[in-house]
Every structure is written in structure tokens, then in C-alpha cells.
């Protein structure tokens, strides 16, 4: 949905808006479609009367070699990584009437319950998800929404043994949590990939779908750097390996058995398991988990302003020759931006003399800065650029958004 704001000539494109501080909810309309592709065979036959026969033959050979290099089976990989993947269950308080036939957690399959009315009973439901061990002494990663209402959890390993676990820390913005499994110091574990996958790389998603036990699905990386703009500013991996209910928090592996992503959610037009699956990149896990281990929370910079990317339409209204930067939609009262004099309609074109391409880029850069530090902006206001310094605050705690379906 797009709307044009009069006065400052501000065009609000809600599909692209981003809140530095989590003050806006964005509705996303997802349209699903299926497409069938027809395989193409390359025979490497030269075309009569051309001089490109050698080049054509090389292309054909490369195509066949790539096909032969693909995995004939994921069985060895699945057997290798399965011992490090765990089922995670945690108790969560909820209104029983809202979930009359449920045992799995409300955020996995249903919208958040309504405020209890008089006469409604309250009880505890079990939120079921997945996770994976990252150290032999029992540290494990899962989704924040799997353990969001609990300080403890119960985990089940691939050999069907049950252990208790403590929730060390959780971060709703990235949807990551760190738990510590008790009882052993020789757990099987996996490592995070050092490099991000390429679009088209194979991935093996492992989890505890529907609480039935360990299961695997395979697919490829469909896209990288997906900005969902719903509750997290992180760039997601889009994968076409199915992520079913209960598999949330489980890992997606590359063919070397390294974790490239944490399975998090699916965007679906009908709210079911059919849709587009997303995983939190390993790079995000590497940035978040050490902070959760050290302090139980993640500290991010915050300016207290809602921004959106400058589109060509906005640039035309503002007479900008080069559409870039982030335009300020609103400023929170008494927030860091308001105190520094930032106004609605201002365009932030650079941060620390580095050009800003989009609202998402600005948000990410602000988040990695320390609260109390100074953000040196270049601001375009009424056709004139000027410097503006904002002393960053600390991003308030964020809650998970129900706009997508956590798995």
C-alpha cells in the first residue's frame, strides 16, 4: 500500500518502510504461484557454418560436469549431522480456550491469544521446535520464539535421550536464542559456515517436524539478503527446502555439513506450510550468540526514528538527481533523533561520510553501533545538505512479529 503525504511532499511506501526502534508493523501481501520448467539438453553439436563449435562443446561439457557433481544422495550428510540436531520444547503460558486442541506452542501455528475474558481458564502449553548443538559442553542455538516465554527447556537428542536445558539468552529481533543443555560434556556438535552460501547451492534442512522426531528436507538457496521488513532488520536466506511446523530453530547445512542458516519462518498466503521459507544467516548467528552468552541480551544502537528508502518517486518530489538514502517518516518524542533536531521529511544521505543506499542499510549500521556513540549524519533538508550528530540510545527490547508464520 502506498500513500502520499502532503506538506513536506513525503511519499510513504509502506512496503519499504523500516523502523529504527521497531515502532511500525508492516503488512505483507504474499501471492503464491507455481511454475514448471522444461529441462534443456545440451548436446555440444557444432552449428554448420559457424566458428563457435569449440566454445559450444566446452559449455556442454561444463553442464554435464556440474550435473555429475551434484549429490546423488544426502544420506551420508544426514547421518553425519543428525546427532547434533535436537528437539526443543518449552512451557508457555496461554489461554487454553484459545487453543482447545493444541499441544504445540501458540506462535508456531496460531496467532497470539486474545486477552482472557472472565471465566476463561489459563494453563501451560508446550512450544515445540528444533535446535542444534554448537559445543561439546551443551551450548545450543534455537529460535527465540520457541523459548520466548520460558527460562528453561527440555531437549531430546537424536538417540531419543532427554536432557534439561537453561535459556541463557534470547533476542527477538534476530529470532535467535542460546540454551545450555545439562548432563554431558561430550555432545556431538556442528560448526557455523565461514562463508555464506551462493544462490543455487544445495542445503539440507534438519529439524523435528510436527514433533514426530528428526527429519530432513533438501533444496537449494533461492536468494540471499532478503529483507522481510516485519520485525527484524536482518537479511534472510530464502531456501526452497520445506520448513514444517516444529522445524523452527533447526539448522540448514551446506554439503560440507556446516550450518549456513537457522530455519526461522515461512511466508504463506494461506497460513499453512506451503510458502517461501527463510533462514537466519550464519553471519547473524555469529554476531548475536556471543553477546547472548556473555550478557543474555544483544545491545544495539537506536535513534528513535522511523525511516524508509528513497524511491525514484520520492526522489522526484524532493528534486533529487540520485535516488538514495533514507527519508525520515516520523521521529519519536524525546528520542535521540528528536533531541538532535532530526525532523520528519529529512533525508539521511550518509553516515560517517559513507553513502546510505536504503533504509535497511541505515538500520543495520545503526544497530551495530554502541549506545552512547555519536552518529554523524549528512541530512538533506529543503534541498540543502548539512551535518547532524545524533547520540545513539539503546534499542528497546523487541517482541516477535506475528506477520509471518514462525515454524
Structure keywords:
elongated; Pdz3 Domain; 24 strands; six-stranded antiparallel beta barrel; seven-stranded antiparallel β-sheet; Thrombin, subunit H
Give the topology.
Blueprint: E1 2-5, E2 10-13, E3 17-20, H1 53-69, H2 75-81, E4 85-95, H3 106-109, E5 122-133, E6 139-142, E7 152-156, E8 162-171, E9 176-181, E10 202-207, E11 215-226, E12 236-239, E13 251-253, E14 259-267, E15 276-281, H4 282-295, E16 301-302, E17 305-309, H5 312-317, E18 326-331, H6 336-340, E19 347-351, E20 354-355, H7 359-367, E21 374-381, E22 384-391, E23 393-394, E24 405-406
Antiparallel strand pairs: 1-2, 3-17, 4-5, 4-7, 5-6, 6-9, 7-8, 8-9, 10-11, 10-13, 11-12, 12-15, 13-14, 14-15, 14-24, 16-23, 17-18, 18-19, 19-20, 19-21, 21-22
Q: What share of residues is helical?
A: 10-25%
CATH topology of the largest domain: Pdz3 Domain
Strand content: 25-35%
Number of separate helices: 7
Account of the 3D structure:
The protein folds into 3 domains: 2-28 and 299-394, Pdz3 Domain; 75-80 and 193-291, Trypsin-like serine proteases (Thrombin, subunit H); 82-181, Trypsin-like serine proteases (Thrombin, subunit H, Beta Barrel), CATH 2.40.10.10. The chain contains 7 helices and 24 strands. A hairpin with a 7-residue loop joins β10 and β11. The protein has helices at 53-69, 75-81, 106-109, 282-295, 312-317, 336-340, 359-367; strands spanning 2-5, 10-13, 17-20, 85-95, 122-133, 139-142, 152-156, 162-171, 176-181, 202-207, 215-226, 236-239, 251-253, 259-267, 276-281, 301-302, 305-309, 326-331, 347-351, 354-355, 374-381, 384-391, 393-394, 405-406. It is elongated. By secondary structure, the chain is α+β, with helices and mostly antiparallel strands. The longest helix is centred in the N-terminal third of the chain and has 17 residues, at 53-69. 15% of the residues lie in helices and 34% in strands.
Amino acid at each position: 500500500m502506498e500513500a502520499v503525504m502532503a506538506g513536506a511532499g513525503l511519499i510513504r511506501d509502506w512496503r519499504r518502510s523500516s523502523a529504527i526502534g521497531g515502532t511500525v508493523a508492516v503488512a505483507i501481501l504474499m501471492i503464491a504461484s507455481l511454475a514448471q520448467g522444461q529441462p534443456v539438453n545440451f548436446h555440444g553439436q557444432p552449428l554448420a557454418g559457424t566458428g563457435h563449435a569449440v566454445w559450444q562443446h566446452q559449455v556442454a561439457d561444463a553442464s554435464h560436469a556440474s550435473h555429475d557433481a551434484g549429490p546423488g544422495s544426502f544420506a551420508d550428510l544426514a547421518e553425519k549431522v543428525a546427532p547434533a540436531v535436537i528437539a526443543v520444547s518449552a512451557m508457555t503460558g496461554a489461554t487454553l480456550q484459545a487453543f482447545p486442541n493444541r499441544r504445540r506452542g501458540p506462535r508456531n501455528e496460531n496467532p497470539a491469544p486474545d486477552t482472557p475474558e472472565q471465566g476463561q481458564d489459563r494453563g501451560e502449553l508446550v512450544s515445540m521446535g528444533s535446535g542444534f548443538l554448537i559445543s561439546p559442553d551443551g551450548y545450543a542455538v534455537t529460535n527465540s520464539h520457541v523459548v520466548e516465554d520460558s527460562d528453561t527447556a527440555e531437549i531430546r537428542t537424536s538417540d531419543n535421550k532427554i536432557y534439561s536445558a537453561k535459556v541463557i539468552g534470547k533476542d527477538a529481533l534476530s529470532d535467535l536464542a542460546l540454551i545450555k543443555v545439562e548432563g554431558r560434556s561430550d555432545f556431538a556438535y556442528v560448526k557455523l559456515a565461514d562463508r555464506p552460501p551462493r544462490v543455487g547451492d544445495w542445503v539440507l534442512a534438519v529439524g523435528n517436524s510436527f514433533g514426530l522426531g528428526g527429519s530432513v528436507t533438501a533444496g537449494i538457496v533461492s536468494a540471499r539478503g532478503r529483507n522481510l521488513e516485519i520485525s527484524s532488520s536482518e537479511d534472510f536466506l530464502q531456501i526452497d527446502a520445506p520448513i514444517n511446523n516444529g522445524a523452527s530453530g533447526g539448522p540448514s547445512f551446506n554439503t560440507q555439513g556446516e550450518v549456513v542458516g537457522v530455519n526461522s519462518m515461512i511466508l504463506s498466503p494461506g497460513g499453512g506450510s506451503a510458502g517461501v521459507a527463510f533462514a537466519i544467516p550464519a553471519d547473524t548467528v555469529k554476531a548475536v550468540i556471543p553477546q547472548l552468552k556473555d550478557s543474555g541480551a544483544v545491545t544495539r544502537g537506536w535513534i528513535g526514528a522511523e525511516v524508509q528508502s528513497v524511491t525514484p518517486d520520492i526522489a522526484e518530489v524532493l528534486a533529487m538527481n540520485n535516488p538514495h538514502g533514507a527519508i525520515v517518516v516520523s521521529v519519536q518524542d524525546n528520542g535521540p533523533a528528536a533531541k538532535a533536531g532530526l525532523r520528519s521529511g529529512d533525508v539521511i544521505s550518509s553516515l560517517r561520510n559513507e553513502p546510505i543506499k536504503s533504509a535497511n542499510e541505515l538500520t543495520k549500521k545503526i544497530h551495530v553501533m554502541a549506545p552512547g556513540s555519536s552518529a554523524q549524519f549528512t541530512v538533506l533538508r529543503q534541498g540543502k545538505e548539512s551535518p547532524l550528530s545524533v547520540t545513539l540510545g539503546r534499542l528497546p527490547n523487541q517482541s516477535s512479529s506475528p506477520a509471518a508464520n514462525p515454524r
